[in-house]
Design brief:
With 408 residues, the protein is of the alpha/beta class. It has three domains: 3-62 and 91-152 and 267-309, 3-Layer(bba) Sandwich (FAD/NAD(P)-binding domain); 165-259, Alpha-Beta Plaits; 320-407, no CATH class. It has helices at residues 14-24, 92-104, 152-156, 196-199, 229-243, 292-309, 320-336, 340-350, 353-360, 366-374, 378-398, 400-407, and strands spanning 3-10, 33-37, 47-52, 62-66, 68-73, 76-81, 86-91, 109-113, 116-121, 129-133, 136-145, 162-174, 183-188, 202-211, 214-223, 249-262, 269-271, 274-276. Helix 1 (14-24) runs parallel beside helix 2 (92-104). The longest helix is centred in the C-terminal third of the chain and has 21 residues, at 378-398. The chain is globular, with a radius of gyration of 22 Å. 38% of the residues are buried. Bound molecules: flavin-adenine dinucleotide. Residues 11-16, 36-39, 46-50, 115-116, 146-147, 255, 257, 259, 278-279, 284, 290-292 line the site of flavin-adenine dinucleotide (FAD). The site of flavin-adenine dinucleotide (FAD) has 28 residues, from helix 1, strand 2, strand 3 and strand 16.
Length: 408
């Protein structure tokens, strides 16, 4: 007979492990939890960077935090004091070690290795959902699913905008003191000449200096297609050697990534007792590609909803204004990604950085949001707003339920 758990988490990645940690850190700490993942990999080669002015459950794993951020735009360069915010960086292996050690210490948390083949409601049973792992059935009172099925997103998302955030990073060590370890560079829009497919993409460098002789330098692009490895490598070399004048360095770590970016309105409730979380639950901010802090806030909201409502679904879906903003920015990125440079330059030149964080975190007050919008060059937006509006009208006519989902 299948075992019954209070909670099953399909996918033990950033979102799955974060939710499990939030659960055992709450009044629900004794609920039985099954976490299923296909990999036995607790050494994920990934760094999570994020800004915050709140403590997180994972602060013990933060490897570096900066109180200053540097931005280089079009004819613009500034170092911002973050005041009550910090920009933090967590290394993947530290996150996994901490989360897995914390969870393995609990007798009510079980791990299963295997491929999740199905996540579905149980016909006739109102209080359970089923997860099939390597042919074996497990039952859960609630199932949280972070497994993105290949291809599903692209097929469904056709009326929406769909592109990729792709990047390559080198952590380098130098023989001289070349980095200011007090200020991380969030955006450096000085970009190399590049190949034709890169030139129109939104692209920038991101530099996290751990010490004066050690930093992670990353080349990031938002565009429909990934590039050949040698394009990223050439850009990184050009940035390090020509723009920063660093000749003598060794690469000590390499990070590659590709994250799907879309304004598709993800469905959170995918079954009577099933909820999508993480990237699958739309927790990746489309216009920035960041998700770590959203996942933390979402996990906390799910726990609160379970405690207060007896179900997990009472979580915020973000105001429509911010979703419209994401759609417009994605439209500009798809049409002319290089037009993002003056938009971001104006954003950083004319606003306090704390207001920008609140806007990107979708916690800005209407006054804050208006201030932000008024500071941006209008001409790039008008055309994209028209296109997004026209697409929304077509969707409204063809699929009113989708449009309602977008507005709610
Ligand atoms: C290289 C990289 C760097 C990033 N850097 C940042 C950053 O700096 N800041 C930030 O905020 N965001 C960043 N992101 C974006 C985001 O935080 C991550 O994508 C995050 O990992 C999303 O969490 P998730 O739980 O949804 O997905 P994942 O962490 O990918 O977890 C999904 C889990 O499901 C498992 N799985 C998949 N299919 C199956 C199956 N069929 N059966 C069983 N298990 C399965 C996988 O093994 C994985 O463990 C980055 C993403 C990448 C790829």
């Amino acid at each position: 007979m299948a075992s019954l758990f209070d909670v099953i988490i399909a996918g033990g990645g950033a979102a799955g492990l974060s939710l499990a940690c939030h659960l055992i850190n709450s009044l629900l700490r004794d609920c039985s939890i099954l976490i299923v993942d296909k990999d036995d990999d607790d050494q994920i080669n990934r760094n999570w960077g994020f800004w915050t002015n709140q403590p997180t459950l994972f602060d013990a794993t933060v490897s570096r935090a900066w109180r200053q951020l540097h931005v280089v735009g079009e004819g613009f360069e500034r170092t911002f004091d973050l005041e009550d915010y910090q920009y933090k960086l967590i290394r993947g292996p530290d996150f996994y070690r901490y989360a897995l050690d914390t969870l393995r210490a609990r007798s009510n948390v079980t791990f299963a290795r295997g491929v999740v083949e199905k996540v579905e409601d149980v016909a006739g049973a109102r209080n359970e959902a089923r997860v099939v792992v390597n042919g074996q059935e497990h039952l859960g009172r609630w199932v949280f699913d972070s497994i993105m099925r290949a291809g599903a997103l692209k097929r469904q998302s056709s009326p929406y905008r769909f592109l990729k955030m792709h990047f390559k990073g080198w952590e380098i060590e130098t023989n001289d003191d070349v980095f200011n370890p007090n200020a991380a560079t969030l955006f450096d829009f000085r970009t190399p000449a590049g190949c034709p497919s890169e030139v129109r993409a939104m692209r920038f460098f991101y530099v996290m200096p751990f010490m004066s002789r050690r930093a992670l330098v990353e080349y990031v692009l938002f565009s429909p297609d990934v590039l050949r490895q040698d394009h990223y490598e050439r850009a990184l070399r050009e940035h390090i050697e020509m723009m920063r004048g660093i000749r003598d360095y060794q690469i000590v770590f390499e990070e590659n990534g590709c994250v799907p970016i879309t304004d598709y309105p993800f469905v959170r409730r995918t079954g009577r007792r099933i909820m999508a979380i993480g990237a699958k639950g739309g927790q990746l901010k489309p216009s920035t590609g960041y998700s770590f802090m959203r996942v933390q806030q979402d996990s906390a909201a799910i726990v609160q909803s379970l405690l207060k409502r007896g179900h997990p679904f009472d979580v915020s879906y973000g105001a429509s204004l911010f979703r419209l903003g994401d759609s417009v920015l994605l439209d500009i990125m798809l049409r002319r990604g290089d037009e993002i440079k003056p938009i971001f330059t104006a954003m950083f030149a004319k606003n306090p950085i704390q207001r920008i964080f609140r806007f990107l975190d979708e916690t800005a007050s209407p006054l804050d949001a208006l201030g932000m919008i008024a500071s941006l060059p209008p001409w790039q937006f008008v055309y994209s707003l028209g296109r997004v509006g026209a697409q929304a009208a077509r969707t409204w006519t063809a699929q009113p339920h989708r449009m309602l989902a977008m507005l709610m």
